[in-house]
User: Which sequence fits this backbone?
């Protein structure tokens, strides 16, 4: 092969393309531009081409270069030679009696994660996963009993939004306004499997695509990231993502929080609250959501409610009470409806919104903290099948 000419301009030295076609999904604009140049796009055109391809992928939902009709035939062929546009594969889709849809999604390496779509009046929320399993071991969470297998890539994170839009048939028709906020998929919550702040860069890059006005174009106020309390990453979330924040608070003393959310032993309630105090201003967002799972006789007393109010004083907040969702072998019980209402009442009277989260998709094990079960069951039965067949 001819040697590349040596010049002063480093940008003219051919860049090396990765082995095999590169997936363009999940690349930042800068990385996409770079990839296009590496594949032979003249540098002065690269930014414009990046914008065009970006819009085809994220605004129109196109998966084949052949459909990108504002690009020349030759250029489409060049793109198809070097790149693919791929989202993770849906293995199964279950639809609950209440309309909730749970997708079992296969990612590279044969791993599986779950994504849940929750239709609501005039809107719809997609609950997406950021890791396969979770390294943390919150004692009331089913995902926490599954060891972490790996972090998801940006493509696998934003890909969950794309596959849900595929399933909902929600890519805009040509000429229709893609910014229309009466969408079926109008909100994203990072509340599926995994701790999003332990996969910060990938989550950030994926959410940047979701928020990009030429991308999926959801307002940052329609994206909520839930963390168990990874204190050092909270400031970065405000600066680099700027979405809404939810925090898995769940207890009002360090003693109880240590057992429920063990990351509390690393960063305790005082340190967490300190980080939360600066979040709304730093991210220019509104209130922080305090998630509080209602566990019978563990964290659901009137004293807890009063302590909670004292702790969060001065933080713009809403408290989201989550009735505990049971899973096989769980060591807790759900608080009674009366207890939950009494707790909510104390908080409401102190001036905070205190909605009680209605469990959705329970019949398909799609409710908060129940994810992984279906996958795990399927694995088990496969193992059993293999065993029975003498392969195990
Ligand atoms: N790892 C992140 C986000 C995923 S969990 C976090 O912990 O914040 C989303 C919410 O569901 C969290 O508030 C979590 O504590 C809660 N949750 C987990 N298991 C639950 C269960 N069995 N019942 C009710 N809520 C649960
Ligand atoms: Fe992980 Fe969140 Fe479950 Fe805790 S509650 S184990 S951080 S997914």
Assistant:
């Amino acid at each position: 092969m001819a040697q590349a000419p040596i010049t002063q301009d480093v940008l003219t030295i051919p860049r090396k393309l990765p082995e095999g076609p590169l997936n363009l999904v999940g690349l930042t604009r800068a990385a996409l531009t770079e990839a296009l140049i590496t594949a032979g796009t003249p540098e002065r055109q690269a930014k414009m081409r990046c914008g065009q391809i970006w819009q085809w992928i994220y605004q129109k939902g196109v998966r084949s270069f052949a459909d990108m009709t504002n690009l020349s035939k030759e250029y489409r062929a060049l793109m198809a030679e070097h790149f693919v546009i791929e989202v993770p594969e849906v293995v199964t889709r279950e639809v609950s009696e209440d309309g909730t849809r749970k997708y079992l999604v296969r990612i590279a390496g044969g791993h599986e994660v779950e994504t849940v779509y929750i239709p609501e009046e005039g809107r719809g929320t997609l609950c997406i996963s950021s890791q396969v399993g979770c390294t943390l071991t919150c004692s009331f969470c089913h995902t926490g009993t599954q060891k972490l297998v790996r972090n998801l890539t940006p493509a696998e994170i934003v890909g969950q939004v794309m596959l849900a839009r595929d399933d909902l048939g929600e890519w805009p028709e040509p000429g229709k306004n893609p910014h229309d906020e009466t969408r079926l998929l109008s909100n994203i919550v990072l509340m599926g499997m995994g701790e999003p702040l332990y996969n910060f860069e990938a989550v950030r890059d994926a959410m940047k695509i979701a928020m990009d006005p030429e991308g999926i174009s959801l307002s940052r106020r329609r994206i909520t990231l839930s963390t168990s309390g990874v204190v050092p990453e909270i400031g970065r979330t405000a600066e680099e993502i700027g979405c809404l924040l939810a925090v898995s608070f769940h207890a009002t003393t360090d003693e109880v929080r240590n057992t429920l959310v063990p990351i509390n032993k690393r960063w305790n309630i005082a340190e967490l609250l300190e980080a939360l105090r600066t979040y709304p201003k730093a991210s220019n967002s509104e209130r922080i959501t305090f998630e509080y799972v209602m566990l019978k006789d563990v964290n659901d007393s009137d004293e807890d409610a009063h302590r909670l109010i004292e702790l969060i004083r001065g933080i713009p907040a809403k408290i989201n009470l989550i009735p505990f969702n049971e899973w096989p072998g769980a060591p807790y019980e759900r608080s009674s409806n009366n207890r939950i209402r009494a707790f909510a009442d104390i908080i409401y009277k102190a001036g905070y919104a205190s909605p009680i989260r209605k469990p959705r998709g329970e019949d398909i094990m799609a409710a908060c903290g129940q994810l992984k079960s279906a996958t795990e069951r399927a694995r088990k039965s496969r193992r059993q099948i293999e065993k029975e067949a003498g392969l195990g």
User: Anything to note?
Assistant: The pocket of iron/sulfur cluster (ligand 2) is lined by residues 134, 136-138, 141, 143-144, 194-195, 228, 248 (CB under 6 Å). DSSP finds eleven helices and 13 strands in the chain. Residues 1-14, 377-392 have pLDDT under 50 and may be disordered.
